[in-house]
């Protein structure tokens, strides 16, 4: 199975970069986008009217649907939608083979004073974690998860119990957290016997009097706790072909996850 990590900043509605990129992909490729690529970054998003945010999301979803159908490719992307009269932060899986999308609603959100998504979005944060959305593609069992949720053991216990092979994890990581994120991805991949594909955004955003820089470093962590490949800090893409046999071979060798055949 071919997977492309598309490391980008926010894509404007008239931006042709994604369409040009998809034109070159082989059929059946899965493309993963970082957080706040289809929508503006959180600090900008919260200044917008809800109607403008939803119109923007609708147009970007339509773009992905058209690209998926035209090039026969798959997408995983973060998107802001309306649910129960408020905004939800979700991940969407779009397949060229189905008009029905698979969504995952983020269950644990950032709630720092300077970056409080929990107070802004209406996402339920249940005491008892639910199993994230999982789907099959290329014989692999794939889960999609928001980057912040890497910190919560109970989520990963759910994924391990389901025998997930690959976790696609869109992120919006900034400040001086690159080394910490690398260690987190390596640790979760090793203990869960899965591959973690973390796709982080790049670019910058003005917040009050400071500039926040998003450093990229999108990466592939394998079930033996190693980084197979990674990107730099610019607009780039990372291509990887993964098979279930390759992943389960490593997982069985280390023995931290029971592999379901």
TrEMBL record:
The keyword Hydrolase applies. InterPro entries: Aliph_Amidase/BUP, C-N_Hydrolase, C-N_Hydrolase_sf. Keywords: Hydrolase. One of its GO terms (molecular function) is N-carbamoylputrescine amidase activity. SUPFAM superfamilies: Carbon-nitrogen hydrolase. GO terms for biological process: putrescine biosynthetic process from arginine. Pfam families: CN_hydrolase (PF00795). The keyword Hydrolase applies. Residues 1-244 form the CN hydrolase domain. This is CN hydrolase domain-containing protein. It comes from Helicobacter canis NCTC 12740.
């Amino acid at each position: 199975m071919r997977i492309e990590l598309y490391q980008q900043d926010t894509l404007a509605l008239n931006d042709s970069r994604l369409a040009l990129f998809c034109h070159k992909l082989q059929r059946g490729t899965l493309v993963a986008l970082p957080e706040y690529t289809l929508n503006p970054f959180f600090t900008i998003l919260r200044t917008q009217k809800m109607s403008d945010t939803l119109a923007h999301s609708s147009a970007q979803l339509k773009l992905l649907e058209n690209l998926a159908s035209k090039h026969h490719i798959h997408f995983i992307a973060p998107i802001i939608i309306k649910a129960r009269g408020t905004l939800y932060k979700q991940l969407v899986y779009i397949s060229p083979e189905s008009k029905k999308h698979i969504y995952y609603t983020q269950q644990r959100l950032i709630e720092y004073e300077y970056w409080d998504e929990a107070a802004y979005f209406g996402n339920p944060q249940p005491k008892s974690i639910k199993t994230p959305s999982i789907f099959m593609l290329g014989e692999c069992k794939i889960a999609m998860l928001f980057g912040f949720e890497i910190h919560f053991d109970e989520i990963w216990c759910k994924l391990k119990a389901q025998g997930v092979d690959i976790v696609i994890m869109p992120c919006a990581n900034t400040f001086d957290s690159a080394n910490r994120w690398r260690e987190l991805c390596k640790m979760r991949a090793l203990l869960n016997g899965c591959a973690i594909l973390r796709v982080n955004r790049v670019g910058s955003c003005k917040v009050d009097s400071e500039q926040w820089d998003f450093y990229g470093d999108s990466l592939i962590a394998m079930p033996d706790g190693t980084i197979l490949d990674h990107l730099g800090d610019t607009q780039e893409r990372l291509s990887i072909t993964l098979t279930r046999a390759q992943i389960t071979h490593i997982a069985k060798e280390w023995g931290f996850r029971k592999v379901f055949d």
